[in-house]
Each structure stands twice: as C-alpha cells, then as structure tokens.
Amino acid sequence: MKILEYNGLDTSRVKASYRKVVEAIARDDFYAAQVKKLANLSHGRFYRAKLDDTARLLFTLIRHGDQTCALMLEVISNHDYDKSRFLRGAAIDDEKIPEIGVDEAIREAQPVRYLHPERTTIHLLDKPISFDDTQEAIYRRPAPLIVVGCAGSGKTALTLEKLKHAEGEVLYVTHSAYLAQSARDLYYANGFEHAGQEAVFLSYREFVESIRVPPGREAGWRDFAGWFGRLRQAFKEFDGHQVFEEIRGVLAAGAGGVLARDEYLALGIRQSIFPVELRDKLYDLFEKYRDWLAEAKLYDLNLVAQDWQRLAAPRYDFVVIDEVQDITTVQLALVLKTLRKPGHFLLCGDSNQIVHPNFFSWSQVKSLFWKDPKLAERQELHVLTANFRNGLEATRVANQLLKIKHRRFGSIDRESNFLVQAVGGDTGQVALMPDKDLGKRELDQKIRQSTQFAVLVMRDEDKVEARRHFATPLLFSIHEAKGLEYENIILYRFISDHRAEFSDIVEGVARADLAVETLDYRRAKDKSDKSLEVYKFFVNALYVALTRAIRNIYVIESDTAHPLFALLDMSLGQVKVEARQSTLEDWQKEARKLELQGKQEQAEAIRRTILKQVPVPWPVFDETKVIELVVKVFREQAPGAKMKQQLYEYATCHDEPQLAEWLVSEARFEPAKNFAQQRANFGRKTYIPYFANHFKDILRQCEQYGIDHRLPMNQTPLMAAAVAGNVPLAEALLERGANREAVDHYGYNALHWALREAFRDARFAGGPLAALYELLAPASIDVNTGDRLVRIDRHLSEYFIFQTLWVLFKSRFTHWQRRANGAFDTQAILGTWQHLPANIVRPERNKRQHLSGVLARNEIHRDYAYNRALFMRVAQGWYQFNPGLAVRQRQGDEEQWTPIYKALNLPLINEFSRTESRQSAGWEQLPEVIDHYLTLGGLQKRSVPIATERAVALEQVRQAELKTFSERLQAVLAGAAQPNLSWETKERRRLEVERLLREMEERKKR
C-alpha cells in the first residue's frame, strides 16, 4: 500500500526503525511490522506498529478509489498512549491490543474524496486532507493573501492550515457563528495545539462584543420587516428588501462613516439601488430606522461598527477573515484596527455567493487593506476553481449561470472571473419539473420523511405557498440556506415567481455567447446601467441554491419555457426521484444541527411534525417543583411521608447534606439520618438504567420525549449518562443531537455532572472520565466581564480552572470547608485534580505554582496585559468568581447574558446552605458571606431558608423571652443593691433572682 505522512509527524528520534517498519507496511506485511488495532475507540480507526521496545508508530488507513494508503500520524514514546494527541486520553494496555490482518484493515479504510497522485504529505483537520497543486501553492505563499473560491473549494480548510503557522494572538472571524464554531472545531480536531499561538474564533457579532458588548439585541430582517410593515402606507414606493439592503449596504456600510443626507444624494448612479429622486425620502426612512432601533433596544452591526472604531486597538498578530463577501467595508475596517502588524492577514470568499446587494467588490477590499492605490491594484488574488462538494451536473448548470451573469452584466471585478471544476463528485442530475399538483403530491410523498431532501424558495414570504405542497420541515429561504448542504435540493418557483427579473437577466444573451470555457475580464458597456446591483440578488440566489446540492437538483416551475432554462440546457423530461425514509435518529441529529446553525424554525418543525415529542409523564424536580415541596414539608408541615421522601431523593441526587439534616430535625423524617451512607447509591435511584450496557429503552424514550427531555431530578439523558460513566450511551446520545450545553437548575451541564463524580471518586476519574471529557467539554466559555466578551477556549489553562470552580461552587456553601468564606484556595482545587488524566489537566498545569499564577493573573484589577478578570481575591490565597461576570446562555435561538451568581443559582444554594460554621469566633459566618456575594452580584438580599423558618421563628421568640427575663433580672438586681433594705426584703430579692436564673436556663435548653 502507498505510504502517506501527516505533515506534523516527527520521526527524528527513530529514523532507522521508522524506515524499516514503513517498508514492511508498504508491502502489506503487518506481521513484520507487528501491527495491532487499537480497539474501543469511537472517533476513528487507529493502528500501532512496533518501532522498538518502548516506541510505537500510530497510523490509520485511508482509501481513494481502489487505492489503499497508510497514513503515518505519530510516534508514541514509552508506551504513553494517554499522551497521544490522536487517542484523546484513552487508556490502552499495550499487552492487550489485538492483532489484525492486513485484509481486514484494508476493508475498514476511511474513504477520501481527493488524493494527490504524487504528493505524499497529508494535512489533518477532522479528517485527512490532500491539497491539489493550486491549494499547495497558496499554502506555501506568505501573507498577506486573498483567496477566492467557490462553495466546496476547500478554502476554509486551506485557510485553517495556513493559520496553524501564525504566531502570537490570532483571530479567525466570519459572519456566521456556526461557521466560526465549525472552523474552531476543525482547527483543534485530533488534538492540535501550537504553543506559541493563542487563536480565537469569532462570528462578526462576537468580534464586536469582544471590543464592547452593545446594549440590546441585533436587529434582523424579521425585526425590520415588522417595523417597515407599519410604515408601509407612507413609503409605498419602496420595496422592504431593497430598503433593508440599501441601509445595510450603502448608508451605514462605508468605512468613512454613516453617509450624511447630502453625501447620499450625491452618490453616483451605480453606487445606490435607488434613483436620485427617491433618495431624499429614503433618507427620511433611514432616520426613522435609527430612532426605532433605540426605542426597541435593538442595534445594527454596521452602526455599532461605526461607533466602535474609537474603541478598537491593535491586539492581533494575525487575522483571517472568512466569507469576506458577507462583511461590509466598515466592519472590515474595524477588524483592521485590531491588527498589530500590517500585512499579517488572510482573506477568503466568493462574490458569487452574495445574496444581497451590498456593493461588494474585491477592489474595494484591496483598497482598504492596502492604503496605496497602486499597491492595492498589484495585489494578486489566488483563485481556487476546484469544487470537491457538488455533483458534475450541478456544477455544469452553475457554470452556465455564471456565464450568463458575465455576458449580461460584465465582470464585477477581475478576481471574480472564473468557472468551477467539479472534482471527485457524482454525476447527479439537474431536472426541470412542471408545477403540477399531481407531480408535487408524488414528490412530497417521497421526500417528506427524508433528511436528504430540502426545499428552497427565494424569500421568506414564499414559504407560505411552498408549505401548501411540501410537508418536509426542511424548507428554507435562500438567506437561510446559506452555508447548508443537502444530497438533494428542490428549488420551488425560483424563476416563475420572479419571471420579469429573470427575463431581464437573460435579455440579449444567446446560447452561442455561452460556448466558452473561461471568462474574460470585461466591464459593462453602459456605465449608467446599475442593473447588476438590482438583479444581483436573483442571479446570486439561484447560484447559491444550485450549489447547496451535493448530488441532485429538482427545479419545479410553472413557466418551464422561460428562456433561462434553454440557456442552462435544462428541459422537461422523465424524472426519477429516489428517496430513503430517514430514521428518527436521523431526524434528531438534523434538528440539533439546524439548531446549532441558528435555524430554529426548521428545528422546531422537525420536533413538532416528525418526532412528535410529548412531555414526560413524571414530575420533574426543577427549582420550582423543589421549592413547592420545601414549602409543603417545612412551612406548611404537610402530613405524610411521600413529599419528605421525594425531598430526600432530591438531597441524595444533588448532594444536599444540610437538606437531609433538616429533614431529620425539622420534619422528623428519620430515614434521612442515613444520608452519608445512602447518598452514593440512593442518589442514583432515578437514573439506574443509565448504568446498563444495553440502552435501547433509553433511546426510545429520547425519541418519544425528545433527546434533551428531563429525568425526575431535572437531568437530561446526557447528564445521567455522564454521571453514570456510560461512554457508549453518551456517544449515542450525542450522535442523535443531544445538547452538551443544556444545564440543570444549578447551572450544571453534562460535563459538570461527570466532573463532580470524578472529584470524589478516584476510580471514575481514572476510568471513563478521559473519554467523557473529550465528548462533553464545550469548545469554549463566553463571559462578559462587564463591558466586553471574553472567550475562554478549551485549550487554555483558565478553561479547566473555570469549569472546576463552577462544579465546586455549590459545595462551598453546602458542605463543611476549612474556612466558611465561600471561596477556593489552591489546596482545594489541587485536591480535586489529583486523580485526573493528563488529557484533562496536563502534568505541568497540575502544580500549585502554575495554578496560583493563573488565578492571580486573572484577578480583578490585576495589572496584566491578558487579564481576563475572571476572579476576585477574597483573602490571601482565596478566590471566588468575579461577581461582575455574566455568562452567555442560549435557549433556542435566543441568547442572554446572565449574572454568574444567578447562573450558578446562589439564591437556591442559599436554601440548602450551612447556617453555622465550625470555626471559632471571629471567623466568617456563611449567611453573611452569601448575603455579601448576592449584593456584589446585583441579586436580591439573602432570605432565611424556608426549611429553617419555623426554627428561626421559635429562636426569635426564645431570644425575646430571654431578653425580657434578663431585663427583669437586671431590675431585681438593681433593687437588691439599694441601701436601707430590711433583711427580709433582701432575702426575698435573692430568692427571686435565683428563680429567674433557673427559669432562664430552662428556656435556653428548650
């Protein structure tokens, strides 16, 4: 087999043995190379070969066509499999690894879409990547770079590989939050790290927040459409879509500032969508728009970018801007202000994917990044023409559309003149179908249960008609479809509903004009013709729609004789549609994927129409339910043992020892005396099935109630699988779309449940935790330090410290501690880390000196350039979360910043906190500490725990009585001290004093 090498492979210490082993593998002699397969790994198939007594060679197999290749990945020294960046902390015993034959290994080889015929160096993100010659040439060029490429050209993968070589603080920014998160996950896949680099991956909105968090919420098209609809009568001459894009792309988009009225009126014909005579009135509308934003507490990212220019400062040593065509000039200018070194940037995008007229051009981008106009003109753009995603027929039709666009409107700029070459895809089909009810019904019956088919329409308002004929929840407008891909795409009435616009687009274009294989640079003849900006949305929308399909496209139109179809070489014919019904598991995964992409409407439609999920039939003991129980049991003294038993089960599951004590002392529930002995086992009562190896019933429940339904103790199934240490079940749940960031009423997610168990159980820490951590740890934590976003990425030291303190937070108040100050010291933290595997806490980080340094450098008011202000110092060596922090919490497509003590639910923690401390007088008392933290966090003052209200009331009565007796005693004593009293009177006073003292003692004992 052919030998390939990962570009990060280092064999310098084992050159001779490496060469010998590789030669054996190349001739398929696994016996000579002593190859064994590493079993029980869910994230890939890995093999090891023996280099010498202590060193092992890790490799995997890939297949391209009929050729199988061995990809050499890593040399593992001293049998330290747990330190392998590819094995993710898996515990592997070298003596127990099974042998494997070469034939079996070849059958399991991972298929790849492209493999360079000669080059043997392989790049690695989440999967192996082989660059073609164009990609390789760009990869080797130094910054600055501008890369132009179509959908599926591999430009993001190339960009990320380039980013790996940057030093210092680096920024990857793009318009889409989903793309930014996906890029981050690709970048750090398979354990990649660069010691000399700190990379941050942000959507553009998150980038703005990292400078300063704007107040309110970002205004979107739907917000605008609702507002514009109310003004429709006064502005009848304007189309809402065009107004929205004129505001976003012209009035507020310039790097020189928001256009004043006279500047707007003076724009040239091709610099605005609207004619000069309408602009004055449109500017009136723009002013109303700005007033509405303020009233509605919304913001426009362009306007924020204008205001934030004065706040931005150089910070990043290297910047990557992906999908640059979606970012306006003023937004780019703001990014540029954060760049430390001129020229240390990489831009990539595709102007053919602009689905709104924002007047983007590569020449404008170059002028912004190269201040010298002549220098900007000379900058070369590097074009990726290969398409590794779409089928051959889809690519052919998309190219025909580009030819029509070029012939009709001329070149947008020199850099956008290229056609696409399909590489490695299926042929597929692009079929034209008549808009007939019978055909639509048959098609709907085939596709409605398949996740492999999506229906696209031009605009949001077109979805109403499409829903009348197609029951699939996978229905998108073209704005929503950006960034999506499906095996099969149905385009519904793209042309017929916009017949006039597409007729204008093809006007004057003949079939003979399209008989070209390349696009020459030529400008439009009529300089006053601004039709490109008006029609760009329609032609680009069709192009984006065509490139969403991996294999097949079905175009449903009533006007099948429209001249566009002849130019695209599309005609009516026999159409065969094959659709496989997807499983409920497939739909669960699809719903979660869409939710992550911000497509909440479609995700909810899946759950409503396909999954048909119903509420759970059992009570869920969330905060509301628990407080109801506490009121019934302690305040109202409800009779019977059922509610007390439920509270006891809650106490054992959530580790609430004080609640158990109060159940004994205040509710006379004797079984709670056994809390310490029963906590571990009794606390699992409601999720015992999650410990089993067979979990089909659990997965069926997830289909019935939802993948993130709540168990009786307010856990999600993923939380229960995590605390049970059931790695296969956790994998199955995540595969079906379980949300690893869902939290319970204490702010615990699935990772926190697993960590809490590991912190008190060494076997759990040394066993399933390593694999669970890789599965469950969120990529990052977003905190608001009071005015700006700080993203704590998973590879940073601060990340795991933050997660550790989050897990330990509640126990500072509910369990006995060395000091009752509700804070952490290094001793407490290191104590919980002592049994953790190296993939979670590296040995060099698991030291007091390192930990103290990280805590100190992130302390509020600390003078340190990279201070994230995460902690406040309570006392020398004692820390707590900065009370001014807020964490980002997501609920569907809604996001909000929640104060950290509210997210951790300190008010509820107070309900079950210790009310006394074991320290001597003069030390802290927890109630006062909690009250102090609540005040610092901007929350309501502490209330008396409900469970202690009766005891507190009785104590207050007792104290009042004692005070009364004390006052009487003082009065008697004062009278006894008066002179000239007879002996009989003195004796009577003495006896009264003694009686009062005895009564006081008796009352104290009550």
Notes on the structure:
- Residues 577-604 form a coiled coil.
- Keywords: ANK repeat, Coiled coil.
- This is Putative recombination protein RecB.
- Pfam families: AAA_19, Ank_2.
- This protein has 1006 residues and is of the alpha/beta class.
- The protein folds into 6 domains: 2-124, no CATH class; 131-208 and 311-384, P-loop containing nucleotide triphosphate hydrolases (Rossmann fold), CATH 3.40.50.300; 220-298; 388-581, P-loop containing nucleotide triphosphate hydrolases (Rossmann fold, 3-Layer(aba) Sandwich), CATH 3.40.50; 779-943, no CATH class; 949-1005, no CATH class.
- The protein is 42% helix and 14% strand.
- The strands form 7 sheets. Strands 1, 2, 3, 4, 5, 6, 7 and 8 form an 8-stranded mixed sheet that branches.
- A hairpin with a 5-residue loop joins strand 3 and strand 4 (56-64).
- Helix 11 packs parallel to helix 12 and helix 15 runs antiparallel to helix 20.
- It is globular.
- The mean pLDDT is 90.
The CATH homology group name of the largest domain? P-loop containing nucleotide triphosphate hydrolases
Low-confidence runs of at least 5 consecutive residues: none
What's the β-strand tally?
Answer: 29
Structural category: alpha/beta
* Integer-rounded radius of gyration: 34 Å
Helix content: 40-55%
**How many domains, in number, for the residues?**
6
Main sheet specs: 8 strands, mixed
CATH fold title of the largest domain: Rossmann fold
Give the mean pLDDT: 90
Strand content: 5-15%
- Identify the CATH class of the largest domain: Alpha Beta
What general form does the structure show? globular
Task: Give the termini separation.
Answer: 87 Å
CATH architecture of the largest domain: 3-Layer(aba) Sandwich
- Total count of helical runs of at least 4 residues: 42
